[in-house]
Amino acid sequence: MASILIVDDDQAQLTILQRILKREGYTVEIVEDSKAALENLEKQMFDLVISDMWMSSRFEGRDLLREIKRTDPDLPVLIMTAYAELNDAVNLVAHEGAFYYLEKPIQIDVLKREVKHALQTRGALGEPEAVNDDSTPEIQIDEIIGESEQMQELFKKMARILHRGVTQVLITGETGSGKSLVARALHKNGLRKDKPFIAVNCGAIPDTLIESELFGHEKGAFTDAAQQKKGLFEVANEGILFLDEIGDLPIQTQSKLLHVLEERNIRRVGGTQSIKVDVCVIAATNKDLIQAVRDGAFRDDLYFRLNVIPLHVPPLREHPEDIPMLVNYLIDKFSNEYAEALPKQVTPQAMSALRRYEWPGNIRQLENYLRRIFVLSENEVIDKDELPPEILDTSLPTTDVEFDIPEEGVSLEEIIKEYVYSALARSNGNQIQAAKLLGISRRKLQHRMQKYELQSQDFKTEL
User: Which one-letter DSSP state was computed for residue 175?
Assistant: First the structure.
């Protein structure tokens, strides 16, 4: 049975809230000031604290929150606030770790909903496994590699999420840092691992289609709606919906997503029936959502609803000590993918250069570079001379050449041909530039072009 501590200097409100939450089956303790609250927190364990914003002392509610976050960072705190204090409450949620805010006069259905959400993050509504935060979590991470302090902290947070059955996560990090890998690892190791994992890039779907994609549509809902279609929330029911690049979601769709997150039901476009969905939503973004809120491009209430459990994936330049491990992992991966390729080793000089480079494209850029070198090199050892020139001279612009590799895989010869084709296309048929992009000699490029029947003039575009 979940236990809740309520802190407010309004005795009448304390009594009302206690009565409501007891009827919901919770154990509820009430106190009238922060000092008594801290004394209770020292004596017994609580799963949730609900505190008034202002009490007898002007900053007492804020100070209580800070003390709770210092001693028990995972204990959720709901802040009660009047409309005039709303901006202060929002700041507590955004910057100081409050779970969410309850605006006075408090609506009973909102109170019940927010209490349930908060307790779910604590794992208090189920029977989560105990996690020893002082040990390295034993979870299958797959392609997420790292022994640095930053990565170990990420793994520990992932372990807490997995063991507590959290149903809402916001992953932040730069492009190429591995946010989608984190989302897939949470699915593979979580309670929903045998259920669907549906990923959608919110920025890749036209604004006119995004609602239909997420929520579905009824036959005849619009011109091209020839038949009923289930949305991704329905397809992902009981599983995980990964909303990548959530910062690109159109503002008009954000309010509907907020409704789904709060009520856990959807309504198809053109439909009248509400459909219950049980979906764990993992959102990811490379944008500063706080700034997007200030700019009016992202709803503040949706941000706070998504940011229940934040996970930050550090950029590669902040943990360069993990690069040797990543390089060895990727080399092994390529060796398994291309059985006919020579096994490769990286010289200490090349590894040193890889560690010094800042990797603006993060792990994705590192993988693209290594794959290209691995495929095109005819040597068993990757030396510094085979690295792209910008890695050795950071004043040069990036010359990353990449292409999409289908899930069913392609042969090594097709990979090489695609790299040559991509380099020629990017260089407008200029062989010297294309050879530089590929890190090979012009003569070797010409040999490849002859083999694949490629002509420079085929890639020239008229100005």
Answer: T
| 70 and 12 belong to one structural domain | yes
Buried b (16+ CB within 10 A) or exposed e, 229-256: bebbbbebbebbbbbbbbbbbeeebbeb
Of 411, 412, 327, nearest to 377 (Cα)? 412
- Alpha-carbon distance 302 to 283, whole Å? 11
Average pLDDT per 10 consecutive residues for the chain, totaling 463 residues: 90 92 93 89 92 71 86 88 69 77 85 86 51 45 80 86 77 94 91 93 90 90 84 94 95 92 89 91 94 92 85 93 91 80 80 91 92 84 85 63 59 76 85 81 83 83 53
* 429 residue type, one letter: G
∠ CA 440-446-448 to the nearest 5 degrees? 80
Question: Which pair of structure tokens corresponds to residue 342?
Answer: 């020579």
Count of C-beta atoms within a 10 Å radius of residue 331 = 19
CATH of the domain at 67: 3.40.50.2300
Contact between 125 and 116 under an 8 Å Cβ cutoff? The reply is: yes
The pTM of this model reads 0.66
Q: Classify residue 135: in a domain, yes or no.
A: no
